């Protein structure tokens, strides 16, 4: 990413590698279908495809007010190394050229950089673009090398999801289970949408970048582990937990020390802090990816003389390599610690973590439509997660009236379900007359309690028990929604 200037206008250039193979291959009959992608007129208003080539933190197409027509798409580098026939390549180039010619500024750039046809000799077609936008006013600033497009200017709501790692698949599964499937046109594309939620852009990012971008205002909502929010959010009050228990990504952030040597008899943080070894000259050496939380935790636990080092993974190797005395890392099964001769100690858990839905408070209060979208996502998550732990049980019970059957059921507190049983008569023809001497009961039962429930039901005359999974349980109003409104002062 780089900046350049022209004489009168501030110009920002972004470069992004983008392969056009997929668009070519996807088109019926192998004919290039580049016009929607590279037609600059369409690009200015049609946000859809140009997003493919624009990095997450700048979207000139959705910039509001709309950018002046001088959106400059310049073809910088062309590397034709694909399985393209010469005719197809030429057709593609001609389409690009036609499209670019619709923007006078772009035409110049294109003719400057268009490679000669003789260079189209390889077997895979890939093109690197630079997207430049010229602005008559300058809403862009450069902050630590990042471009700040005054993100509040955009109209879309942005949801950040983990692009890879442990959380990625489970997050998509959760959304899928809530009928909020993410539609990603190309696995290499970092932007996607959720057809059920209009005006929502999904941006795939590394978990820590999701938190950073929530803080910078480049994302509005995100799903990451609580550990990541706590470490990279660093207590920032703009970050609000909308749902703090999404029921996956369970792990704990723990301090661990070797089982051997000077630590053999150390079994608690208190004992670790009381060791006389740690001095200003020879401090406790801790390797962690969570320096913010670790520093706070160790200080609060009386460990003053500590130095930190970081690594991107496999931290458990650090003590055995002689690089560290202790580590602070995520643990779930504990196998990695065990296999590396390390142990957790009493009082050494910094944080219990699982996946959470987090939002920017500023966005919630300022971005049009975000509160409604957040409400919908929250309701769907809550309804799905509540249902996950429950079965619906339908059973028959002989009785003289619905009230009498209900009384029998309610006499057993564990049979009362969420609000109480639904009891309805089962009509049969008895001696030529339609009568109800059986009642069907419908109750929600915790999955863990199912067998005990069936036994109790039988004990009071239940029979023909049918058990089925539940998809959603929508409550009257989710307590988390009320909590969110109160955190926002609404
Ligand atoms: N062993 C584990 N068991 C369960 N959940 C874990 C475990 N390790 C990590 N997690 C959760 O998954 C999240 C992502 O972890 P992962 O290691 O995949 O991140 P990453 O994107 O590869 O991070 P990094 O950018 O540091 O490489 C963590 O923040 C945590 O919430
Ligand atoms: O308690 P366990 O079930 O053994 O899991 C713990 C390990 O899982 C995570 O690492 P990950 O596998 O994501 O690899 P990494 O070390 O490269 O981050 C974490 O950093 C631990 O190393």
UniProtKB/TrEMBL annotation:
CDD domains: PBP2_HisGL3. Keywords: Amino-acid biosynthesis, Chloroplast, Glycosyltransferase, Histidine biosynthesis, Plastid, Transferase, Transit peptide. One of its GO terms (cellular component) is chloroplast. Residues 206-377 form the ATP phosphoribosyltransferase catalytic domain. It is found in: Plastid, Chloroplast. Residues 389-471 form the Histidine biosynthesis HisG C-terminal domain. This is ATP phosphoribosyltransferase. It comes from Lactuca sativa.
């Amino acid at each position: 990413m780089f900046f350049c200037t022209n004489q009168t206008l501030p110009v920002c250039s972004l470069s992004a590698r983008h392969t056009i193979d997929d668009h070519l291959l996807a088109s019926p009959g192998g004919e290039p279908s580049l016009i929607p992608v590279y037609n600059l007129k369409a690009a200015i208003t049609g946000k859809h495809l140009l997003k493919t080539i624009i990095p997450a933190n700048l979207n000139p197409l959705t910039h509001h007010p709309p950018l002046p027509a001088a959106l400059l798409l310049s073809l910088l580098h062309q590397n034709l190394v694909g399985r393209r026939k010469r005719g197809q390549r030429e057709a593609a180039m001609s389409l690009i050229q036609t499209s670019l010619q619709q923007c006078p500024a772009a035409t110049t750039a294109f003719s400057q950089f268009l490679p000669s046809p003789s260079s189209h000799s390889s077997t895979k077609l890939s093109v690197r673009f630079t997207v430049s936008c010229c602005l008559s006013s300058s809403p862009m600033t450069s902050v630590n090398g990042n471009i700040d497009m005054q993100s509040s200017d955009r109209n879309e709501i942005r949801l950040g999801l983990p692009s890879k790692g442990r959380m990625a698949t489970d997050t998509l599964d959760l959304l899928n289970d809530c009928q909020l499937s993410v539609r990603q046109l190309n696995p290499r594309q970092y932007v996607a949408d959720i057809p059920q939620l209009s005006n929502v852009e999904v941006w795939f990012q590394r978990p820590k970048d999701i938190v950073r971008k929530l803080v910078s205002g480049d994302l509005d909502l995100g799903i990451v582990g609580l550990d990541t929010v706590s470490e990279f959010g660093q207590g920032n009050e703009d970050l609000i937990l909308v749902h703090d228990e999404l029921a996956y990504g369970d792990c704990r952030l723990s301090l661990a020390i070797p089982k051997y040597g000077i630590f053999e008899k150390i079994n608690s943080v208190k004992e670790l802090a009381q060791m006389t070894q740690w001095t200003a000259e020879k401090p406790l050496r801790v390797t962690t990816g969570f320096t913010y939380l670790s520093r706070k935790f160790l200080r609060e636990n009386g460990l003053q003389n500590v130095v930190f080092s970081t690594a991107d993974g496999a931290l458990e190797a650090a003590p055995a390599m002689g690089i560290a005395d202790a580590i602070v890392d995520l643990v779930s099964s504990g196998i990695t610690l065990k296999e590396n001769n390390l142990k957790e100690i009493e009082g050494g858990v910094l944080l219990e973590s699982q996946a959470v839905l987090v939002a920017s408070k500023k966005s919630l209060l300022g971005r049009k439509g975000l509160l409604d979208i957040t409400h919908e996502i929250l309701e769907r998550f809550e309804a799905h997660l509540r249902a996950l732990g429950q079965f619906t049980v339908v059973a028959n019970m002989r009785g003289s009236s619905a009230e009498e059957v209900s009384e029998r059921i309610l006499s057993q507190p564990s049979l009362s379900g969420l609000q109480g049983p639904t009891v309805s008569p089962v009509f049969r023809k008895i001696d030529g007359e339609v009568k109800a001497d059986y009642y069907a009961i419908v109750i929600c039962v915790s999955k863990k309690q199912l067998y005990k429930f069936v036994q109790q039901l039988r004990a009071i005359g239940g029979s023909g028990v049918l058990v089925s999974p539940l998809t959603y349980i929508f409550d009257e109003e989710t307590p988390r929604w009320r909590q969110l409104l109160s955190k926002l002062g609404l």
